[in-house]
From TrEMBL:
Highest taxon listed in the record's lineage: Eukaryota
Classification via SUPFAM superfamilies: Clavaminate synthase-like
Protein name per its UniProtKB record: Phytanoyl-CoA dioxygenase
Length: 367
């Protein structure tokens, strides 16, 4: 590692080749406990009564924000290094939120004959139907700055033997995503539908078209995993201890998994965005900046940019002449409306708890 580097050469190589790294013990169990202290009130469930666990997986709205650089300084430093320096990152990305993602599973938790194993095996990753890349709120281009990295902090442990609801990753699928975006500089929808094709714009809420085939592109790519005879070896499951943080390339295909162990699994996905789009031709950009006497940004490719270029076989030469052909656009996902309704319901339950038990002190900044 260089004096300014927090990532080892091995970690950098792993990210370039596989699109993910894990920062172990990036925050403490005490920090995690404070973060999730009122999760059961917010869910409206009883941690000691699984009959109240009416939803297998919940994407919760946020109520509070906290500074990632203080909460998990090693993880934040690694994020900055992967993205080419903190000066390239949107300052709002330092603010993580308590928009928790809770997996509780469903059905009977374990076999009667073996209390350490689930009563049914996890679903083979190739057959999962939830594969996607993050970023349901913008039109995607190869250089999109809105989703610069995917972050997964673990607020509870996820067993390494699997079956605990850890996010599934398909590193080989990144090449298909990168090639698709490279081939469509006009932009694609969050579901990878090219501009101008049927389904590019979201269907109205509540219509059959809204859900029809919405993840088909991703699921088809992931279904090819293991075709070389290695079975599930192409896939990775996010596991680890409380306080571990996974950092994933923005084009990483990933999916939720079932949780047959029915262990409580709590994570979140704080977004990281850039001030400017990714640049895949930094030599020409550097020359232009020298002519304009601008030096805010280095001419050095970030590790994320290098990984993307490697996916499409252009790490050495860059993408001279490639550029998007339409304007960048935002998309308002149905998720926003759903989570606003959930937030109001959570606030009612939290207010009721405050009236009956008193409000516990927290050190986080309200959003």
């Amino acid at each position: 590692m260089t004096p300014d580097s927090v990532l080892s050469p091995e970690q950098k190589d792993h990210f370039l080749n596989h699109g993910w790294i894990k920062i172990p013990k990036a925050f403490t169990e005490e920090q995690a406990a404070e973060m999730i202290q009122n999760v059961w009130t917010r869910l409206g469930m009883d941690p000691n009564d699984k009959s109240t666990w009416h939803t297998a997986r919940t994407h919760m709205p946020s109520h509070r924000t906290f500074d990632a650089a203080q909460f998990a300084p090693r993880a934040w430093a690694a994020i900055c290094e992967l993205c080419g320096g903190e000066n390239r990152i949107n300052p709002s990305s330092r603010q993580w939120r308590d928009s928790l993602i809770v997996s509780l599973g469903s059905g009977a938790p374990i076999s009667k004959h073996n209390h350490n194993q689930p009563n049914r095996p996890p679903t083979p990753p190739q057959t999962l139907q939830g594969w996607h890349v993050d970023g349901d709120f913008f039109i995607h281009y190869l250089d999109s700055p809105e989703q610069a990295l995917l972050v997964i902090p673990l607020f509870t442990p996820i067993p390494r033997q699997g079956g605990g609801g850890g996010t599934a990753l398909y590193p080989a699928g990144m090449r298909a995503v990168a090639a698709h975006l490279y081939a469509h500089p006009e932009g694609v929808s969050p579901r990878m539908v090219p501009r101008g094709e049927p389904g590019f714009l979201p269907a109205p809420a509540g219509t059959a078209e809204q859900d029809q085939g919405k993840l088909n592109w991703f699921n088809t790519v992931a279904s090819r995993g293991g075709a070389d005879g290695h079975g599930g070896d192409d896939f990775v499951e996010v596991t680890g201890d409380t306080g571990d943080v996974y950092l994933l390339h923005p084009l990483m295909l990933h999916s939720s998994t079932n949780n047959p162990l029915r262990n409580v699994r709590i994570i979140t996905n704080p977004p990281v965005s850039l001030k400017k789009p990714f640049c895949f031709n930094r030599d020409s950009e550097k020359k232009q900046k020298e002519e304009d006497e601008q030096d805010e940004d280095s001419g050095v490719y970030s590790l994320v940019e290098r990984a993307t270029l490697r996916m499409i076989g252009r790490e050495r030469d860059g993408l001279q002449g490639w550029k998007i052909t339409h304007e960048r656009e935002k998309v308002v996902p149905e998720r926003v409306r759903i989570q606003e309704r959930m937030k109001q319901e959570e606030l009612k339950r939290l207010a009721l708890e405050k009236n009956t038990e008193g409000k516990k002190s927290v050190t986080m900044v309200r959003s």
